[in-house]
Amino acid sequence: MSQKSEKHARRLGCRMDKLESDMKQLRQAQGDSDCFTAVLHSISNETAVQRRRVREKDHLAREWRRVAWLSLIAFVLCATAALCLTIKVKANADKPVVITDKLAEPVSPAQCWEAPDIPELDENANIQAALLAKANVIQDCTVTWYTSDTCGKQPGDPAYGITYSGLPVVEHLTCAVDPDVIPLYSDVFVQYADGRIEQLWATDTGVTGNAVDIYTPDYDYAIQCGRQSLTVWWVAPEEASAD
After folding, report:
1. Which of 83, 155, 174, 177 could make a disulfide contact with 202, Cβ separation 3.0–4.6 Å?
2. How many separate domains does the chain show?
3. Given CA atoms 11, 16, 22, 24 in this order, what sign does their dihedral have?
């Protein structure tokens, strides 16, 4: 082989070596590119999963906030309704008044006593009707009103506001009777001049004969009501419990 041919062969070999080296680098770069693509694809998938979890948690948090606000609003509405009902009941259940004393100006029955503006249950009405049906009646019974201050006891006294039976006085419930006429613990029904009937409980004494003394915490109110001749029914505790 001539020197010219050998020189040409060496150049060709160098070019082939360089070409193989370039091909090797190209294949390596291709491999690195595929690996990067796979990693990028994996990161993209993981990012999508995390985003989905974040969206789910955010949606759950919004739902909890919505439920919490609705619960708070419902609580406020219920509390407001209960407060309004309490105020209405307190305003309507003031004082059962009837007729005044002869020395005072006449007071109409409507001014003396107004029942609370609350519908009574049919069951309570039936019980009251059953009690009245077997009750003992006192026509022209003397009805008066008294307070804790008119019982000869001073505030601070352990017996202040305590009835003969040992029970505390309760407005619209406690009344005093003569045990020889109306037995203690009897259910007492007083019919006012306007036809309304109030049910009381005979747990106190201090009156004589056909008389009923009704407890009220308001001294001025007791003076205003004065003395009234009304129809009264009473049912002994044994008869009431046997009903």
Report:
1. 177
2. 2
3. negative
Tens place of pLDDT per residue across the chain (243 aa): 566 667 667 777 777 777 778 777 777 777 777 776 776 677 767 777 777 777 787 777 778 777 777 777 877 777 777 776 766 656 565 555 444 444 444 444 444 445 455 455 566 666 667 777 778 999 999 999 998 887 777 777 888 888 898 899 999 899 999 999 999 999 999 999 888 999 999 999 989 999 999 999 988 988 988 899 999 999 988 765 565
Say if residue 142 is in the same domain as residue 58: no
Token pair 């109409």 is found at: 108
Tokens of 29: 């770069």
H or E stretch at 63: helix 3-92
Task: State the Cα–Cα distance between residues 5 and 197, nearest whole angstrom.
Answer: 140
Confirm whether 66 is domain-assigned: yes
Q: In the numeric block, which tokens belong to residue 103?
A: 């020395």
The type of residue at 121 is L
Would the pTM count as exceeding 0.90?
Answer: no
The whole domain housing 146 covers 109-242
Question: Which pair of tokens denotes residue 179?
Answer: 């045990």
